[in-house]
Amino acid sequence: MRVLSGIQPTGQLHIGNYLGAVKYWTLLQEKHDSYFCVVDLHALTVEQNPKEFAKTTLQKVIELIAAGLDPERCTLFLQSHVKEHTELAWIFNTLTPVAELERMTQFKDKSAKHKKNINAGLLTYPTLMAADILLYKPDGVPVGKDQEQHLELTRAIAKKFNNQYGKTFEEPDSLVPKEGAKIMSLVDPEKKMSKSDAAASYISLFDSADDIQKKIMRATTDTESDIRYSPLKKPGVSNVLQIYSLFAQEPVQDVEKKFQGKDYATLKKEVANLLIDKLEPFRKKKKELENREIYIQEILKRGAKKASSQAASTMQEVRDKVGLVPST
Fold it and tell me: Of these residues, 137, 160, 195, 214, which one is catalytic?
């Protein structure tokens, strides 16, 4: 079975990213032909500082390896290193109705957030994402719930291409981890944890022990005193219990019983101590990798070579089906 997923290079990996995606990727790479891509071209839909952007992109690769991706067990590469992504995206643009792109939730959200930069890339983001996926003809795509709409469009594009030009693409299944898919903000526990929000709202995989302690102790709870798992009535406390449950690998009901009769401060101290212990190996690995630039570049070179081989094969088939004249 072949799987593929991608992640933007901007912002540090936080525990929500890890539990909802990257931890799942580390399990998939053990059993499947796994492709993981840092989608740097997607990130250009928001204005970037070029010098900082290059550093941020390489930093994301380091973070992924530190978090458990093994370049010996998966294909790790940069989207921009495989030219076929943009070529296939253009062909998909010619098949995709503008109305379909305009109804995408992410386009609406980002257009509202970046009113001075509503660029064409924001609109056609899903067709590039479809190309990212279908180039590699995966059986499954690990996605968060917020990307399900884009994957539905990817299937629709695959179907339309097949109907118009002949059977070429399979429609990949979505692979969603059962647990940890939605960790909430520490500041506003009714919102999903996001790296685009203030730093106090999330725990980075690479935060210092002091930062973890401060963020957890300041996490929003409520004015009551009982420790009870009830996401609707007690979202803040429930979020803290969920974080403990997932990192301790204990059912949340057992965690709830463990802290019954104790106060919020005790719960938060225990959660902070658990996170400090569990995240320490990630911090150490990241620090080690930051001094191995040649090694990181070699991983990306090897990943791009393997990804390009598969992408070129798919594009040759697509060009033939579409009727593009072969280059001599």
Answer: 195
Q: Which domains can be identified in the chain, with CATH numbers?
A: 2-179+293-322 (3.40.50.620), 206-287 (1.10.240.10)
The beta-strand segments (E) located in 171-265 are: 173-175
CA distances from 247 to 121, 200, 271 (A): 37, 20, 9
* Per-residue pLDDT tens digits for 32-72: 999 999 999 999 999 999 989 999 999 999 999 999 999 99
Active site residue 110: yes
Q: Mark whether 285 is an active-site residue.
A: no
- Which residues partner with 174 through β-bridges? 141
* Mean pLDDT within 291-297: 96
List C-alpha distances in Å: 239 to 32, 114, 208, 212: 32, 29, 21, 15
The average pLDDT across 282-299 equals 97
What does the chain come to in residues? 328
| 226-262 pLDDT, tens digit each | 999 999 999 999 999 999 999 999 999 999 999 999 9
Q: Considering the candidates 192, 215, 234, 285, report the single residue annotated as catalytic.
A: 192
Query: Which candidate, 120, 14, 32, places its Cα nearest to that of 74?
Result: 32
pTM of the model: 0.92
**Whether the Cβ atoms of residue 236 and residue 221 lie closer than 8 Å to each other:** yes
Catalytic pick among 110, 234, 268, 285: 110
Q: Whole-angstrom Cα distance, residue 286 to residue 282? A: 6
In the three-class reduction of DSSP (H, G, I as helix; E, B as strand; rest coil), residue 23 is classed as: helix
Helix (H) or strand (E) holding 298: helix 293-322
Q: Is 108 a catalytic residue?
A: no
